């Protein structure tokens, strides 16, 4: 009996233990998540159709623009649309007539140049004209950049005439000095600008020179001189190496109604010169002015290129003028430049700029002797009409004063 009871107890314990294991294993298993609830979908408001009545507007209080407070406490302003300004068309200027222009500018020239004439007259007026006095006269002429050979010729003629004629009064000395200086400058040289070719049009003028001599400005002023004489002008901006050179020349042209032909910066200057002559022919212009790049006379390659420009232009027609622009203040150094340019292109005329500054008037004589070509134009200031045709008599009168 006891054995049966013991067996029953063991069986109960075993069954209880097995039951606990089953319950524990069920708790360890994760139940799958419940299915998501179906979201409530709200249909969008229906689009109004044709014929549907609009919603009755609600009565709301509205404020006027005057009642709205602005950030700075001011009143609201309505901005007006910007006014578009009309482009101003540059007015064409009427240049000053060239006839007698140097006479009108004589006072400006004499202010800086008559020291030469006054010095010579003072020396010639001495009571005794000994060798020392004549040496001082030579020094005065050499200081004025007249040159050695012309100075010696002038002094010899003066000594002879003063000795033979016995000229002593101030009026007689002035007349004598004026006559000899005019002869020295060369009154018989042809100083007319060759801008009218023998057959057809246009006349072709090429302007050459070293940087800093005022070459591009001189080209623009020369256009004004020609326009003042009734000529139509085309400008060729063949200085493609200096920044803004073409813009500068075009501005000069626009002032007097001259057409400017230009090319790309650092482009081929010979091509620009060729196109300028071509357009000048097509437009029937009287004169084509070609501004070339400033060449250093020590740079062989650049000087060769200048010769190329000349050859290309002459494929259209021969050049009528080749003007060399020289800075009169450079003195004898300008003669070196002139000599080298003359070897590359055939110089036909000289333009002396800045003659109203510290320049010596004798450079006119020296450069003519050096090249054998006349000074045709002189620059006497920064004004647009301060370029004047060279007149020997008026120039000498400005040198020696009244």
TrEMBL record:
SMART domains on file: AAA, SRP54, SRP54_N
Biased composition, Basic and acidic residues: where in the chain? 49-66
Its UniProt entry gives the catalysed reaction(s) as: GTP + H2O = GDP + phosphate + H(+)
In which broad location class does this protein mainly occur, judging by the first location in its UniProt entry? membrane
Report the Pfam families cross-referenced here: SRP54 (PF00448), SRP54_N (PF02881)
How this chain sits in the membrane, per its record, is: Peripheral membrane protein
Q: Where does GTP bind?
A: 209-216, 291-295, 353-356
Q: Which GO terms describe its biological process?
A: SRP-dependent cotranslational protein targeting to membrane
Q: Which UniProt keywords apply?
A: Cell membrane, Cytoplasm, GTP-binding, Hydrolase, Membrane, Nucleotide-binding, Receptor
Per the UniProt entry, the Enzyme Commission number(s) are 3.6.5.4
Which cellular compartments is it found in? Cell membrane; Cytoplasm
SUPFAM superfamilies assigned to the protein according to its UniProt record, in alphabetical order: Domain of the SRP/SRP receptor G-proteins, P-loop containing nucleoside triphosphate hydrolases
Molecular function (Gene Ontology), one example: GTP binding
Q: What is the annotated quaternary arrangement, including any partners?
A: Part of the signal recognition particle protein translocation system, which is composed of SRP and FtsY.
Protein role: Involved in targeting and insertion of nascent membrane proteins into the cytoplasmic membrane. Acts as a receptor for the complex formed by the signal recognition particle (SRP) and the ribosome-nascent chain (RNC).
Q: Which family does it belong to?
A: Belongs to the GTP-binding SRP family. FtsY subfamily.
Return the protein name: Signal recognition particle receptor FtsY
Tell me the organism.
Answer: Streptomyces coelicoflavus
């Amino acid at each position: 009996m006891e054995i049966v009871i013991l067996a029953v107890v063991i069986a109960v314990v075993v069954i209880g233990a097995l039951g606990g294991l089953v319950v524990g294993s069920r708790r360890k298993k994760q139940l799958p998540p419940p299915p998501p609830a179906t979201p409530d979908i709200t249909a969008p408001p229906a689009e109004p159709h044709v014929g549907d009545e609009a919603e009755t507007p609600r009565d709301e209080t509205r404020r006027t623009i005057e009642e709205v407070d602005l950030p700075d406490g001011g009143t609201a302003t309505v901005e007006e649309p910007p006014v578009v300004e009309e482009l101003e068309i540059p007015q064409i200027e009427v240049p000053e007539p060239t006839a007698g222009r140097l006479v009108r500018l004589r006072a400006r020239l004499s202010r800086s140049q008559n020291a030469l004439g006054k010095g010579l007259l003072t020396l010639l007026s001495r009571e005794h004209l000994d060798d020392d006095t004549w040496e001082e006269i030579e020094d005065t002429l050499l200081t004025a950049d007249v040159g050695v050979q012309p100075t010696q010729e002038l002094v010899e003629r003066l000594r002879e005439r003063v000795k033979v004629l016995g000229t002593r009064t101030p009026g007689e000395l002035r007349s004598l000095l004026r006559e000899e200086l005019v002869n020295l400058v060369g009154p018989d040289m042809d100083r007319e600008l060759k801008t009218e070719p023998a057959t057809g049009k246009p006349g072709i003028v090429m302007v050459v020179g070293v940087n800093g001599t005022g070459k591009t400005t001189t080209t623009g002023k020369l256009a004004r001189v020609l326009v003042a004489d009734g000529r139509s002008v085309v400008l060729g901006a063949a200085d493609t190496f200096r920044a803004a050179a073409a813009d500068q020349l075009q501005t000069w042209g626009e002032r007097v109604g001259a057409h400017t032909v230009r090319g790309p910066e650092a482009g081929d200057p010979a091509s620009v010169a060729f196109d300028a002559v071509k357009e000048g022919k097509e437009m029937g212009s009287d004169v084509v002015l070609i501004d070339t790049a400033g060449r250093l006379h020590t740079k062989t390659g650049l000087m060769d290129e200048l010769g190329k420009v000349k050859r290309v232009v002459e494929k259209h027609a021969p050049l009528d003028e080749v003007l060399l622009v020289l800075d009169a203040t450079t003195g004898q150094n300008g003669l070196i430049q002139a000599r080298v340019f003359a070897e590359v292109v055939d110089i036909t005329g000289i333009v002396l700029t800045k003659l109203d500054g510290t320049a010596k008037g004798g450079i006119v004589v020296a450069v003519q002797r050096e090249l054998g070509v006349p000074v045709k134009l002189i620059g006497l200031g920064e004004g647009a009409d301060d370029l004047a045709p060279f007149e020997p008599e008026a120039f000498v009168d400005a040198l020696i004063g009244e």
